[in-house]
Amino acid sequence: MHTSTLTAGEVLKQSREGQGLSIEDVSAQLKLSTRQIAALESSDFSALPDPMITRGFIRNYARLLGIKSEPLIDAYQEYLPANSPKPISIQSANILIPGQDKRYWLLYTVASSLIVLLVVAWVVYMDYMPRLPETSDIATAQTENLALHPEVSTEAHSDVQAIAEADVLPPAAEAEPAAAEPVTASGPIAEAITATPVEPTASPVQETGSLATLTLSASETSWVSVVDRNGKSIFDRILSAGVEETVKGQPPFQVVVGNAPNTTLVFNGQAVDLAPATKDKVARLKLE
Hints:
CATH topology of the largest domain: Immunoglobulin-like
Strand content: 15-25%
Number of strands: 9
Order of helices and strands: HHHHHHHHHHHEEEEEEEEE
Strand order of the largest sheet: 3-2-5-9-8
Largest sheet: 5 strands, antiparallel
Oligomer: single chain
């Protein structure tokens, strides 16, 4: 393909058709209208914005097709002297000043800033909002309380045993304590005596034995949300560029990554490929 005999628009059009892409495909990837794509390919630069923005269109289009943009921009520059001058008509005090389209960029900047502020506010709210204690935390607290105050457990056990003896012994046995035989509690009371000291210690052992490690890092600012198998959010915040975070919890993890192409995940020492789970730069996946 010789760019010296073709216009910039013809080079772009032939390259697009050679790769089997439609104008709609290019429009969807470059976020431009089909009218603007058609104007670029037909070299109808009068229907496009000012030269600075049009050069950006050409550069992005060439990058998408995998061809060099410099010859195309040079060809566009040669086209400008014959077409860029426009007659100045002064009919009133309202003079049209070039560059008024910048107000749209200002509006875009303000809107982007508001979106970023809303995201930051949401992350701060999720990090600092009060949360109800998990069932596992209550069980752990009960276990620690029994370990620090064993006399409470002993007294409770003695009270239950006294109630069992009072219910089982007949009235005559109370008058002759020496002849009373040892009574073994049965039924619901015996189950309560047997099960009470075992239940609090079961949960922490199970949690400790199934922890997994997830390491997060990003080359650009990203945000990551991680939820463990109990539905508890164990990581939900913005990840700054160059910062590495490590999260431990019970798998499987439900993970959402905001800027997936620039974010790296390592699950239990193995790198995770985010590409298959990424759509519009957002990856949603389950790690087990």
